[in-house]
Amino acid sequence: MKIFSGSKSKNLAERISEMVDVPLGKIQIDRFSDGEILPLFRESVRGEDIFFISNTSSSDLIMETLLVIDAAKRSGCRSFTLVSPYMGYSRQDKSDHLRSSIGSKVLADILEKVGMSCIISIDLHASAIQGFYNVPVIHLNGNKIFIDYIRLLELDNMCILSPDQGAVRRASDFCKSFPDATFSMINKKRIKPNEIHSMELVGDVTGKNVIIVDDMADTLGTLKKASELIMENGAISVRAITTHGILSGNAIDNLNNSKISELLISDTIVQEKESNKITVISCDTMISKSIIAISEKKSIHEINQI
User: Fold this and answer.
1) Letter string b/e over residues 51-84, b meaning 16 or more CB atoms within 10 A of that residue's CB
2) For a tag on the chain, would you pick the N or C end, based on fewer CB atoms within 10 A?
3) Phi, psi for residue 122 in degrees, rounded to 5
4) Do 270 and 201 share a structural domain?
5) Closest of 115, 104, 106, 131 to residue 50, by C-alpha
6) What is the pLDDT of residues 201-227, one digit of tens each?
7) d(CA 228, CA 257)
8) Confidence class of residue 271 from pLDDT cuts 50, 70 and 90?
9) Same domain, yes or no, for 195 and 292?
């Protein structure tokens, strides 16, 4: 077994490598002046089971990953497992509009075509995406990353809240670890990507410490409006848990100007933006345990259970 890192995942890969007790492999990823990518393995990978740690959060990283897989297969590796904590294009899991693409299916087809043997990811935007692959998909539960931290806060009158219909299952799953917490949700209408038409609170948050649970934080426009609605309805505080901190556009301004007291994210995506409201909790332990289980041909059931 050998572990390699993509160009944007070095810190996470180093921690995982240390936990798994396998030295981080040597790979050189060159870029020409026009952006063309050329990956070069600086050690033999023939007959090896390769674990490549790199998210696919941008077109550039997707292309880098594809070329690394191709280089590994051409160099005679036995298997190639892509460890992509955040899978790009996962919001395109179905055709919501006439004549639109299904980006996550396209990405799955390409990754398999170049030779990926298995994929490890955390909190796919929709579980159905697993069906787009004809290779094993290890889908890890991102809720586990945050449970211990929330317990340490010792919040009274806790309410777990789903910010929309799509996050109800994830928020309900989080509730399992806090049996005394109540549950609420927000019914929202969206007229186009990143733009909310209206929001309606379903449930009672009066006197509650509310924790919003979702899979990703992009522009934070939804969370900003949700936090305002929650506080207007009598909540004591609002925190948000989102596994993937995409934080694009004016996300930081939205966060700093929101009623959210703390935004918890994982390091599935390298963070280049800062705010004193952001707390990052690493996914390194969960991924490390999964890699060890796979290499030892053991079940990951306990790793994934709340």
Assistant:
1) bbbbbbbeeebbebbbbbbebbbeeebebbbbbb
2) C
3) -120, 130
4) yes
5) 115
6) 999 999 999 999 999 999 999 899 999
7) 10
8) confident
9) no
Question: Tens digits of per-residue pLDDT, 11-63?
Answer: 999 999 999 999 999 999 999 999 999 999 999 999 999 999 998 999 999 99
Domain that holds residue 83: 2-141+285-304
pTM for the complete prediction?
A: 0.93
Statement to judge: residues 77 and 119 lie in one domain: yes
Tokens of 11: 């810190």
Quick one: how many helices (H) and strands (E) in the chain? 9, 14
Residue 260 clears pLDDT 80, i.e. is over it:
yes
CATH number of the domain within which 267 lies: 3.40.50.2020
Catalytic pick from 8, 144, 188, 259? Answer: 188
Any catalytic annotation for residue 188? yes
Tokens 């900003």 -> residue: 224
